UniProtKB/TrEMBL annotation:
Annotated ranges, domain Aminotransferase class V: 36-338
UniProt protein name: (S)-ureidoglycine--glyoxylate transaminase
Region annotation (Disordered) ranges: 1-20
Protein species of origin: Novipirellula caenicola
SUPFAM superfamilies linked to this entry: PLP-dependent transferases (SSF53383)
Pfam family, one: Aminotran_5
Keywords associated with the record: Pyridoxal phosphate
InterPro entries per the UniProt record, alphabetical: Aminotrans_V_dom, Aminotrans_V_PyrdxlP_BS, PyrdxlP-dep_Trfase, PyrdxlP-dep_Trfase_major, PyrdxlP-dep_Trfase_small, SP_NH2Trfase/AEP_transaminase
Composition skew (Pro residues), residue ranges: 1-10
PANTHER family registered for this protein in UniProt: ALANINE--GLYOXYLATE AMINOTRANSFERASE (PTHR21152:SF40), AMINOTRANSFERASE CLASS V (PTHR21152)
Recorded family membership: Belongs to the class-V pyridoxal-phosphate-dependent aminotransferase family.
Cofactors: pyridoxal 5'-phosphate
Keyword Secreted annotated: no
Keyword Electron transport: no
């Protein structure tokens, strides 16, 4: 009997316009295929250093401790929370969708007493509301907030927030998974102490890494910890030796070599395009899509909409699942359904990185006119 062979891997190519991943350009896929090196090979160390510098450039920060966590965006969230929270700490979290809720869960798992402030899904927080919460919970050690809430499409303004948080002696932690590489994001200027993102959203790299950055203020807090970080894998006091070269490039875990190549290439593309041009492109594509969707009867849910994630309420009589499934099967276009309270009531259309093109916007709108 011949042994059965596994058929070759040959997935159909899709236009990825959901909440992530976004379409990965061929140039990044080619970078993935470069020869695998050892994680202590001087050639690779150089590539890693370049990658960390590119992350700094994209985040607009000089923070030394800036590196790609081996894991997706959620691992970045865990890294930030686990390193900054000790059992018994108090923390404040702003919840206006799924990801703020996950931050709270993470903080609680690390032993914090969490004070959540909430606004309805789709809305954002005013600095006044945050100042009130900070005043009410003066013992909190940190405040966590989501810059781009992918579950609702809401775009949180972060300007002026750090002063409120720092004046109260707290650290500011930000989820930038759907904003890095798509929206303005100035880590140093905005006084952010800890931030994480993901590769598969506006960087258009495959999923698997989470670029993070910690300020000096955050590092001081970590140095003063009385307890060990609850996560061995994500403990930055050990990781920093490898990623920054401080105290020698000691082995902690094997860096995901080829994913680092892909991230380096994706960030090189971001810098080549120019941060400002890239942000302007996302905005332009958002406005184009918005005009077309509104003409078709969709309405935007958040008042302050992201450009990178368009969360729209469905017009009456639209069959959510049937239409999304026709878009996928007939047009190879993936868009996202509503999450949580918006399940069945909204769509989430991503315009992230390489997916944010005129061609994709025109194709999606034409397909929608056909299937509706
Ligand atoms: C996608 C996303 C995450 C989680 O990232 P994963 O890569 O799925 O682990 C966290 N926060 C926000 C705002 C996201 O959009």
């Amino acid at each position: 009997m011949p042994t059965p062979s596994t058929p070759p891997l040959n997935p159909r190519e899709r236009i990825l316009m959901g909440p992530g991943p976004s379409t990965v350009p061929a140039r990044i896929l080619r970078a993935l295929a470069a020869p695998t090196l050892g994680h202590l090979d001087p050639q690779f160390i150089e590539i890693m250093d370049e990658t960390c510098q590119l992350i700094r450039d994209a985040y607009q920060t000089k923070n030394l401790l800036t590196f790609p966590v081996s894991g997706t965006g959620m691992a970045g969230m865990e890294a930030v929370v686990a390193n900054l929270i000790e059992p018994g700490d108090e923390a404040i979290v702003c919840i206006n969708g799924v990801f703020g809720g996950r931050m709270k869960d993470n903080m609680e798992r690390c032993g914090a007493t969490v004070h959540a402030i909430e606004v309805p899904w789709g809305e954002t927080f005013s600095n006044e509301a945050i100042a009130k919460a900070v005043e009410k919970h003066p013992n909190a050690k940190m405040l966590g907030i989501v810059h781009a809430e992918t579950s609702t499409g809401a775009h949180q303004d972060l300007s002026g927030l750090a002063e409120i948080v720092h004046d109260a002696g707290m650290l500011l932690a930000v989820d930038a998974v759907t904003s890095l590489g798509g929206h303005e994001l100035k880590v140093d200027q905005w006084g952010i102490d800890a931030i994480y993102s993901g590769t598969q959203k506006c960087l258009s790299c495959p999923p698997g890494l989470s670029p993070v950055s910690f300020s000096e203020r955050a590092l001081e807090r970590i140095d003063q910890r009385k307890t060990k970080v609850q996560s061995w894998y994500l403990d930055v006091s050990m990781l920093k030796n490898y990623y920054t070269g401080s105290g020698g490039r000691a082995y902690h875990h094997t860096a995901p070599i080829n994913m680092i190549y892909a991230l380096r290439e994706s960030l090189a593309i971001v810098i080549e395009e120019g941060l400002e041009n890239r942000i302007a492109r996302h905005r332009e594509m958002h406005l184009l899509l918005r005009k077309g969707l509104e003409e078709l009867g969709f309405s935007y849910i958040p008042k302050r909409s992201l450009c990178t994630l368009n969360c729209v309420a469905l017009p009456d009589g639209i069959d959510d699942a049937a239409i999304r499934s026709r878009l996928l099967s007939e047009y190879d276009i993936e868009i996202g359904g509503g999450l949580g309270v918006f399940a069945g009531k909204a769509w989430r259309i991503g315009l992230m990185g390489h997916s944010a093109t005129k061609r994709n916007v025109a194709t999606l709108l034409a397909a929608l006119r056909d299937v509706m």
